[in-house]
Write a structure and sequence with these properties.
With about 325 residues, this protein is of the alpha/beta class. The chain is built from ten helices and 15 strands. A hairpin with a 2-residue loop joins strand 5 and strand 6.
Amino acid sequence: MHSRTVHGSWIAGGLALCLQAHAADLVASHACPSQNRTQESRREALCFAIPFGGRTRTLSVYAPPRISGPRPLILVLHGGGGTGVGMEWLTKRGFNRIADRDGAIVLYPDGIEKSWNDGRGDSHVAASQLNVDDLAYLRALPQALAAHYAIDPARIYATGISNGGLMSYRLACDAADVFAAVAPVAADLSVALGKDCHPAREVSIAIVNGTEDPIMPWQGGTIKILWSSRGQVLSGPASAARWLELDHCEAFSEPDGVIDAAPDDGTSLVRHVAHCARASEVDLFEIRGGGHTWPGGEAYLGRLLVGRVSRELDANEAIWRFLASHRLR
């Protein structure tokens, strides 16, 4: 598998993407960055490199052996300052186990200088400063991989945390012809993107946010990393409400109640569900007391910096159940 070279370009809406350099020449690599030895030692996904837009991009791919037929593809996007290898570690390789069980393929891409150009115009984000076309890149990746793996074009999904969650919103807004559903975590819809978001179709979305997130404010306003302001976002409920409009939804149904299965973690869970046009769906996982973290994942920084990691929810499994229930129509 490693010796093969992949050639491909993404066709969307009946038109070829006009790119500076289309996705081509996917080759095995050792260049995928990791942040520490622990993350590196627990890596299971294979590293590849691909030229795109005048740069060499790296990505990690996990595919279980002996799978046949077209399989779903999940893009798992790291947060600002993170890496694809780090995202595999942060999620405790849970998506890899899902892939083993259900035959999915998992892709952990690396952003430019550990960042994504998510559309909020944050001047502190390297990918935004450099005007990196991450939208075109992530749109192109599924087709690039399709020459290497059997991928079902109706089951391509994206999830991510923080900067990666904001990028997931952008994919739902601007790549609705590629991604069947998305699940941003610890991310609100940016004010700028919320105004300009007009998906080509109804896109199912699951929003997983903590109410005590010290970086991405549940109540909306300014994203803050230490003393730095990093753009304006809607509140968690307003982000969901905007998506109710976009997907032409009914109102959220009455929640089943507060879930507190792990009383010692300082968090609880309320899930809001709305059914929408063309079998789409909007879910809001309200993690009461949760921080800027991946529920059920690794505690990547101290609680004073990022808040609590909720154990009320295995985000890997909850996100997969949601994504897998939706297909591109």
